[in-house]
Design goal:
Length: 334
């Protein structure tokens, strides 16, 4: 007789049977046929990738249909989970639900579009699969495999081996992680190069070129007048109170951070006048109605208008260069 911790005495013969079961290898197709409870996991690491979860769900649904899975899938989705975060709310809920299903006598499996949904780091998949939330309540310990449709791969469990899956899962995750790291480096390098040229991502500041007076200069003048409330200033310049508040903060930020302090701020206002004059003559520099020449001007002055303490002030000659040789300053399309 053998004693199993927490489970009392068990027959040695039964232990032998379980040991033999550990040698059984189930394929991707074997698990699909054996399962009667299907849990689908969807994940996007950032909040910016809108619509990606819907695409993943559609892929899993179509592939499940092709695999002739007739039972409805239970979906667990996470947006903005982070690249290397094993402690995810929906993932934990999936694990708990799948383990409860197993303990009710069912055969659950976890489906996903690709193995990188479970992890982006090969070290994380081992922790998540075998030890999360703890060794006894993990997917691996309860014979609940991970099935990836794209790679046509299944991971091994405590009692069912998958030599190929256990070898390839961390390999594919590592390859995917390297691709992400490479893209991140390329993006960082591109941003650095753009910043060196004076380009900064984001919507360029609106200079209200169609108005006779520069609202930025008017705001600066009115802020120096005693007794004027923020709401009254907004009425005079024809802007919203929130615009007055935000622009007032921008003025203070420039004066504080610019090495030339007030002189640097006044130079910033001078540049707004230069660009406004170009917009009056050649049209807007942002939006669908902007010409390619003015888009180049807007692009090359974006960094200075946003953070004048980090970028050199463009001169009229610089603006004319951007306008005339606009092809050199357009965003490159791959």
């Amino acid at each position: 007789m053998g004693r199993i911790k927490g489970r009392g005495l068990r027959n040695v013969k039964q232990l032998d049977v379980e040991e033999e079961a550990k040698q059984v290898e189930r394929s991707f197709e074997d698990w699909l046929k054996a399962a009667d409870d299907y849990y689908a996991y969807l994940r996007v690491s950032t909040v910016k990738q809108e619509g990606t979860l819907d695409t993943q769900q559609g892929d899993v649904r179509d592939k499940a249909k092709d695999a002739r899975i007739k039972k409805q899938l239970k979906y667990y989705a996470e947006q903005g989970s982070g690249k290397n975060n094993p402690f995810r709310k929906e993932l934990r809920r999936l694990i708990d639900d799948a383990v409860q299903s197993k303990r009710k006598g069912k055969t659950p499996v976890v489906l996903m579009r690709d193995i990188q949904r479970i992890a982006r780091d090969p070290y994380d998949i081992g922790f998540i699969y075998k030890y999360h939330p703890n060794p006894e309540d993990s997917l691996w310990a309860n014979d609940i495999p991970l099935l990836s449709f794209n790679e046509r791969m299944v991971t091994g469990t405590k009692n069912f081996k998958s030599l190929t899956g256990d070898f390839l899962a961390p390999l594919f995750i590592n390859i995917g992680g390297q691709e992400v790291a490479t893209r991140s480096k390329q993006t960082a390098a591109a941003v650095k190069a753009a910043r060196e040229k004076g380009i900064l991502a984001g919507t360029p500041i609106n200079l209200w070129f169609k108005e006779p007076l520069n609202p930025l200069r008017e705001l600066e003048r009115l802020l120096a007048v005693d007794g004027l409330t923020q709401r009254r200033i907004a009425q005079i310049v024809g802007r919203s109170p929130s615009w007055v508040r935000d622009t007032k903060f921008k003025f203070s930020e420039i004066r504080e951070k610019h090495p030339m302090k007030e002189k640097g701020f006044q130079k910033w206002l001078d540049v707004t006048d230069l660009v406004r004059n170009m917009e009056k003559e050649h049209g807007q520099r942002v939006g669908q109605g902007a010409s390619k020449r003015m888009l180049a001007v807007g692009r090359m002055t974006s960094g200075y208008f946003a953070r004048p303490w980090e970028f050199p002030a463009p001169t009229q000659d610089d603006l004319d260069e951007y306008f005339t040789n606009f092809k050199e300053y357009q965003k490159k399309v791959k």
